[in-house]
Structure formats: C-alpha cells, structure tokens
Amino acid sequence: MKTINTFFALLLAGSTFAQLTSYDYNRKLGAVAKEDFYSIPLSPEITAHSRSGLNDLRIYNISESDTAEVPYLLEYQGDKTEETPITFELINDVSHLKCCSFVTLKMSKSKVINTIHLDVLQDNFDKILSIEGSNDNKEWFTIRQHLRIVGFDNAGVSFRSTSLSFPSAEYSYFRIRFDDDSSEKIEVTKAYAFESTTSKGHYDELAVKGKQQTENKKEKISELLLELQDNYPLSYLSLKSNSKSDFYRNVNIYRSAGTYHTPKGDEENWQMVNSGVIISGEQNTFTLGNGQSKKIRIEVINYDNQPVSLDEVKVYSEKVALTAKLPAGENLYLAYGKENEAAPVYDLVHFKDKIPAVLNVINAGAEEFKAAPTLNASAEPLIKNKMWLWVVMGLVIVLIGYFALSMLKKEK
User: Fold this and answer.
1) How do residues 282-306 score in pLDDT, each as one tens digit?
2) CB count, 10 Å around CB of 59?
3) 376: DSSP letter
4) Which end of the chain has fewer beta carbons closer than 10 Å to its terminal beta carbon, N or C?
5) Dihedral sign (CA 392, 393, 396, 397)
6) pLDDT by residue (tens digit) across 6-62?
7) 150, 159 contact by CB (below 8 A)
8) How far apart are CA 273 and CA 290, in angstroms?
9) What structural domains and CATH numbers belong to the chain?
C-alpha cells in the first residue's frame, strides 16, 4: 500500500501543471512580497503570441499540489475619449400661428459642438426644422436647414429619432425653427449635447522588418508592402513622404489575415482596414482596428500623377496591461497561446472600485515555449517528463490488478 500511495503522489505532482502546459507559452512573473493589486504590462511579443485575440491570457499560481487561476482585468492603455453632457437652458419658446415655432437654447459657456439631442413631450410627431446660431441672441446665422425629427408610439411599437447633426459650430445661443404648417406644434422639454475630450494613450512602436514599394503603371497605383517581426495587434500607422512636390492622394490600407490555398498556390488574404487621403508635408495617421497581422499593404491611387515615395512609415500597437490581486509567492505564471479559447469571466469586473488608482508593477520574465514551469527546489515536481507519467500510470494499473487478484485468491 505504501508503494501505491507513492505512485499516486507522483501522479498528483505531475498533473499539477496540466492546465498550464495546455498553453503554448508561459512566463514566470516576478516575486510578489505582499498580497495586493498589481499591474502586469504585456509586451508586444506577448500580445503577438496570443492565439485568441487576448482571450487566452491566464495567470496561474502554482504549488506542489495545486494550480489556482488568478482573476484579472484587461486594460487597454490607448487614447481614451470621454463624453460629458452639456445641458441647454430653454428660453423664448414662441410660435407663429399656422407657420412655425421657435425654441432658443442658451449655453452656460460656448463650446464647439456638432450634435444636439432633443427630448419631446409628444409621442407622435414628424417635424422639419432648421437650426441657427448666435453669440448675442440678436444676430443669427443659419447652421443647417431641412433637418427632420420623428417619433411614433403605436400598438406597443415605438421609435424616436431626435438628434440634430450639423457642421461643428461654437455659439452661445442656438435657435431651432420648427415647421408647423402641416402638423401640430410640439413641446421640447429638454435639449443637451456632449463635449468630447480625448486623453493621449500609450503605444509601442513596432519594428518594421521589411519595406518594399512597387509601381503598377497600368493601374496607376503604388503599393507599399510592410513586413513586421511578428503577428502583432495593429493600432495605427503614420505615413510621410519627403517629396518636395505637393500631392493629395487617396489611399487604401490592408492587413494580411493569413493565406488561403488555390490551385495556383497559396494566396494572401488581404482585408481592408482603413482608407483616406495622404497630403504632402503632413504626418498622415490612420487607425488599423487592433486586428493582428504580420503584413500591411498600402495602396496609393496616383491617377495621372507621378508616383510619390512613402519614406517615413511607423506602425504602433496599443499598450496592454493586466490588473490582478496577486498572492504573495514566487510561483506565479502568465500563460497564453491557445487556439479558440473563450474569454474568462471573473467576479473582479464588478469590484473595480476596490482597485487602487496607483498600482505597483510586476513584470513577466523570459518566454518559455511549451515548457512546464520549474518550482522552487522545495516544491520541485518529482516527475517532469510526460512519458514517465504514462509509465507510472501503467505500473499503478498493474499493481492494482496484482493486489486485486491476491485478495481474490485469499477470499477463495
């Protein structure tokens, strides 16, 4: 029986790493002196080796007899845009019989806006309107005409569209003129807009392994092919030409989504991620949607102009970090690289208010490919090779069979 118990202990020590070794990569985290919340920065190499769009990231606390998963929050550290509501004061709600009605909106402080949202008392309405702006409530300037708002509520089906979009404008007063010639006057109970503020985020510049520009004279197109070191998540790129000539060209930007097989051989699967215009003398920036890729193709439409050389090309990946409450110890591991893994669901997402605003940083060590971690000497597993596990399992089965037969003989 002592022999059997020894074999089961060996099996338990070896199976401790079963979860961790199901991932292609792991990195040992730095030692944690005190249990607390920490930030774990993810390098571009870590995000590049994710097989499931960062859904496969896991933190494990390894001991001699157990493997515990540590909950975390995933934090993207790129640009953040916040919208603050701006409420208008409603003044001068007046109307002309069988013609029109006016509502004047006063801002406490003039700001640049391009959308106004209206709350309407009535359930059913269909109105054509125009919007004007003024800084003194006397001289008015037309901003946009022939706007329409609609609302209906019938048999349990309701719909409302009461947002007014217009070119960006900065006025102290806005006046809305409703056409009441063919419909009843409506009552506006509230008007508001949103002020957008963007805080600059953090990005890693990616190394460009290769760059090649070719000219397709027949199609009047220039193509710039970029090859990166790895399959990174791509956030944005910037383009600049050192050409002394002025130019204004349309561009299409594609990322490679891998290859597919055809009778003529493997073909690159290009997916368009953005399009726009590049202008001479400017640092032209284009977002790339954070999709993973190792190759980028930039297509410049030259029309009947001479091709331009794109001399300065920079590609960036958004910085990412994990926030987790780490237990004290030296056997914490970050695992990643697993196909079709679903994103984890942790209770921690409901307790963000308990996380300190400032966190200490724990860094991940060197990357290990398909390797079981090594614990401290006091907790080193007795069996490291999977083949030995199979041998041990076979011996255990043989021993159990032997003892079972021995017991049956004694019973007889």
Assistant:
1) 889 999 999 999 999 999 999 999 9
2) 20
3) -
4) C
5) negative
6) 444 444 444 455 667 789 999 999 999 999 999 999 999 999 999 888 999 999 999
7) yes
8) 10
9) 17-77+320-380 (no CATH), 82-199 (2.60.120.260), 205-318 (2.60.120.260)
Q: What single-letter amino acid sits at 186?
A: I
Give the max Cα distance, the chain.
113
Residue 373: pLDDT band by 50, 70, 90 thresholds?
Answer: low
* Amino acid type, 119: D
**Local structure of residue 8 (DSSP, 8 states):** H
What interhelical angle do 2-15 and 386-411 show, nearest 10?
A: 150
DSSP 8-state assignment for residue 20: G
Residues 229, 209: contact at Cβ < 8 Å?
Answer: yes
Residue positions counted in the chain: 412
Q: Rounded to two decimals, what is the model's pTM?
A: 0.70
Structure tokens at 126: 């269909």
Phi-psi group of 301: left, alpha or beta (phi > 0 → left; psi -120 to 50 → alpha; rest → beta):
beta
Structure-token match 């509501």, residue found: 85
- Asked if residue 375 lies in contact with residue 65, where contact means CB atoms within 8 angstroms, the answer is no
**Backbone phi and psi for residue 356, each to the nearest 5 degrees, phi listed first:** -60, 150
CB 138 within 8 A of CB 149: no
SS3 238: strand
pLDDT in tens, 126-172: 999 999 999 999 999 999 999 999 999 988 889 999 999 999 899 99
Strands 25-29 and 332-336, how do they pair? antiparallel
Written as six digits, the tokens of 72 are: 């975390």
- Burial group, residue 313, by CB count within 10 angstroms (0-12, 13-18, 19+): middle
Q: How many CB atoms lie within 10 A of CB 334?
A: 26
User: Can you tell me the distance from the alpha carbon of 114 to that of 28, in angstroms, rounded to the nearest whole number?
Assistant: 50
Instruction: Identify the residue whose tokens are 């009441």.
Output: 180
C-alpha 77/C-alpha 201 separation (Å) is: 6
Beta bridge partner(s), residue 62: 67
Provide the token pair at 202. 């953090």
